[in-house]
Automatic annotation (TrEMBL):
GO terms for molecular function: snoRNA binding. This is Bystin. GO terms for biological process: rRNA processing. Belongs to the bystin family. The keyword Nucleus applies. Residues 8-17 have a biased composition (Basic and acidic residues). Keywords: Nucleus, Ribosome biogenesis. Residues 1-47 are annotated as: Disordered. InterPro entries: Bystin. The keyword Heme does not apply. One of its GO terms (cellular component) is nucleolus.
Length: 434
């Protein structure tokens, strides 16, 4: 047909008749490069062989030194004061790859707009005037040393009875950490959690003079390697006084210290027992401290069991103005709280039934948050008590909302059907209850 091209027959490779078998086989083989073992082996140059021998001897020497160090019982034998400043070869590589916090993020001040002078003045009326200064690690160690030895009572900062090399070592560590910004931490410092007298050794390093970045690294190491009780002591005696001092001095918190508090929540029980509860028990927690530490509680995910225990402790302790702020934060997390915790919160609010003081706005807001979240889990008796409370403690904006939430809710143990009957058919519901 026109318009179609005929396919040309493919040319077939034909083998000449006079070709022998050997030539046929050789024609089918491809030309390949000779393999390395088939080619002539080249000798290694004398310069390269000497370098290899030197590297092997160096590695063998390092292995022997490590084995010798492991055989020695003391953790201080392999570390001297001179090694602290030798550089990267003598220090262990940091786990976090910590590169420091930039100066553009040196201060945390996102909470500044939330604080009003009027609120601070109102909450100041609930602060305890009899509360003394918060104890630090240095105060406790100095007191312990003076009790054991009356001869050192005249010294401002006495030294514990330890080996002179250990004292010099950790004094050098303290000087390094006082100017630390980024990089690796000395090995001697990483051994502190494994020591029996870790508090005395930590006292030698003078933690009150550490830089904010050093405090972050110290918190990371201690929270990972110490038990809950020991970490709690580190938080309450070292970290908390440092955070409060920085807020009081600068009216804000350094960004590295803020990240340190977030890192401290790695162990929630130690955080609550070592930072939150001592802060509220001191009776001197102001609004700035509450907002800064509260923002960490608000942002970080915390196990419900730890939060329930902390909320119950806050409800049972003596009231401080900022306690209501922390209670509201835990209530806003919307945990499924046990009835025991709910009863403790109700008892906390009922303490103010006959209080003559004018309660701050945050107290009314915390009560509103409690009623909104857990109104259906309260007993009829609890709701009656809260009704009497809001008749005495009133706020022109918040109290009507509390009353409305209490009215439109079911009691503990009731079902949704009972609530519908009570709202739509109040007379029928009354007869059923009678």
């Amino acid at each position: 047909m026109a318009g179609k091209k005929r396919k040309e027959p493919q040319q077939q490779h034909r083998i000449p008749l006079d070709a022998d078998d050997a030539s046929i086989v050789s024609s089918k083989k491809r030309s390949r490069a000779p393999k390395p073992h088939q080619s002539e082996s080249k000798l290694v140059s004398s310069d390269l062989s000497s370098k290899i021998l030197k590297e092997a001897l160096k590695q063998q020497r390092e292995i022997l030194e490590e084995e010798a160090q492991l055989e020695k019982p003391s953790v201080f034998s392999s570390i001297t004061v001179d090694k602290l400043n030798e550089g990267e070869e003598k220090e262990e590589e940091d786990i976090d790859g910590f590169d420091g916090f930039s100066e553009t993020q040196s201060q945390f001040d996102g909470w500044e707009e939330e604080i009003l002078e009027e609120d601070e003045k109102v909450l100041a009326a609930f602060l305890s005037e009899k509360a003394g200064p918060q104890p630090t690690l240095a105060d406790l160690i100095i007191k312990r040393i003076k009790e054991k030895d009356a001869m050192v009572s005249s010294e401002e900062r006495p030294l514990p009875k330890m080996d002179n090399s250990v004292i010099e070592l950790y004094k050098g560590v303290g000087k390094l950490l006082s100017r630390y910004t980024t990089g690796k931490i000395p090995k001697a410092f990483k051994h502190i959690p494994a020591l029996e007298l870790w508090e005395d050794v930590l006292y030698l390093a003078e933690p009150e003079k550490w830089s904010p970045n050093a405090m972050y690294q110290a918190t990371r190491i201690f929270s990972s390697n110490l038990g809950v009780k020991k970490v709690q002591r580190f938080y309450s005696l070292v970290l908390l006084p440092r955070v409060r001092e920085d807020i009081q001095k600068n009216k804000r918190l350094h960004f590295a210290l803020y990240q340190t508090l977030k890192k401290a929540l790695y162990k929630p029980a130690a955080f609550f027992k070592g930072i939150l509860l001592p802060l509220c028990q001191s009776g001197t927690c102001n609004l700035r401290e509450a907002v800064i530490i509260g923002s960490i509680i608000q942002k970080v995910s915390i196990p419900p069991l730890h939060s329930s225990a902390a909320l119950m402790k806050l409800a049972e302790m003596d009231y401080c103005g900022t306690t209501s702020y922390f209670i509201k934060l835990f209530l806003d997390k919307k945990y499924a709280l046990p009835y025991r915790v709910l009863d403790a919160v109700v008892a906390h609010f009922m303490k103010f039934l006959e209080d003559t003081r004018i309660m701050p706005v945050i107290w009314h807001q915390s009560l509103l948050a409690f009623v909104q979240r857990y109104k259906n889990e309260l007993t009829k008796e609890d709701k009656g008590n809260l009704e009497r409370l809001i008749q005495y403690q009133k706020h022109h904006l918040v109290t009507p909302e509390i009353r409305r939430e209490l009215k439109n809710s079911r009691n503990r143990g009731e079902k949704d059907d009972d609530l519908i009957v009570a709202v739509l058919f109040p007379k029928k519901a009354r007869k059923i209850l009678e």
